[in-house]
Specification:
It contains 13 helices and no strands. The protein is mostly helical.
Length: 300
């Protein structure tokens, strides 16, 4: 991989940008949801350290991703201004920063929560950096691999509090896994030319836009009953149920509109924004109408 000469010192803002803070904050939101519905309790300080440690793991994964994809990022408009492709940072700094975050965050998470949660965090990091990142240049199916580490923090929120895996935690994992597919495809549709220029594989490039729109509709449709499953599991109440139904219908309606009308990049950008609103609204509703109601689901 090529590098650019770096003349200026690394800034704190550039280091922070390696962690992709907007993406990380959304993932932290989902972990909080897992913590909130878990039928047990931890001290506020323990929960805070768990969240910070998980943020460090996410930041490590993103920083190492930026290191590995620095030349690819240079070929895409939406990533050209990142510190490495823009030549503002020595790649070795990004690599050491990513390793440092992992080295302190994974042990800290294990000490403040449990070994299971730390192992889930390590698995998410390894899958994202060592499997998903190189696979993106080989097959469009990489998005299914990438959805696993993206969904694990919700399950980690549950295990951080309970120390075990149970059905509500697995449903949360499934919600995030399914949600990421139309979210990823929206990006792949409106960034299709950039993906092609960077030689990254995507479903629109390999199978065409019509097939990608069909996948969007399918996963949005499957997502609705999975989000609603938290209600009969008694970890969320009627406010959450109604909110999930409305948000799911809006997400699916947007997907169907694009599918029927064979719409292009503008629709895909709208779908992307709707996906973010859907996920944020879903977890806000879970905070408002969820709670520790699921002790009978813990697997001993």
């Amino acid at each position: 991989m090529s590098t650019r000469a770096v003349s200026q010192p690394t800034t704190a803002s550039d280091l922070l940008s390696l962690t992709k803070p907007r993406l990380s904050s959304l993932v932290e939101l989902t972990m909080l949801g897992g913590m909130w519905i878990a039928p047990a309790s931890r001290s506020p300080s323990q929960l805070a350290v768990a969240l910070l440690s998980t943020a460090g793991i996410i930041g490590s994964a993103n920083a190492l991703n930026c290191y590995l994809e620095r030349d690819v990022d240079r070929l895409m408009r939406r990533t050209q201004s990142r510190p490495l492709p823009a030549g503002r940072m020595d790649p070795a700094v990004a690599f050491r920063f990513g390793i440092f975050l992992a080295a302190i965050s994974i042990p800290a998470l294990g000490m403040v929560t449990n070994l299971l949660t730390a192992m889930l965090g390590l698995s998410a990091l390894a899958l994202y950096v060592l499997v998903y990142t190189p696979l993106k240049a080989r097959t469009w199916k990489a998005m299914f691999v990438g959805a696993v580490p993206g969904a694990l923090p919700t399950l980690m929120g549950w295990t951080a509090v309970t120390g075990s895996i149970a059905l509500p935690g697995l449903v949360l994992f499934a919600i995030l896994f399914l949600w990421q597919i139309p979210h990823f495809l929206a990006i792949a549709l409106f960034c299709k030319e950039e993906y092609a220029a960077a030689n990254l594989k995507s479903l629109p490039l390999e199978k065409g836009d019509a097939v990608a729109r069909g996948y969007v509709v399918f996963y949005c449709a499957v997502l609705i009953p999975v989000t609603l499953a938290l209600y009969p599991l008694k970890v969320a109440g009627p406010i959450y149920f109604a909110t999930a139904l409305v948000l799911g219908a809006a997400f699916l309606g947007t997907a169907l509109h694009g599918y029927w009308r064979e719409l292009g990049p503008d629709w895909a950008r709208k779908l992307f924004r709707v996906s973010l609103f859907h996920m944020a609204g879903l977890f806000v509703a879970l905070w408002l109408d969820g709670g520790a109601r699921a002790s009978r689901w813990i697997l001993k």
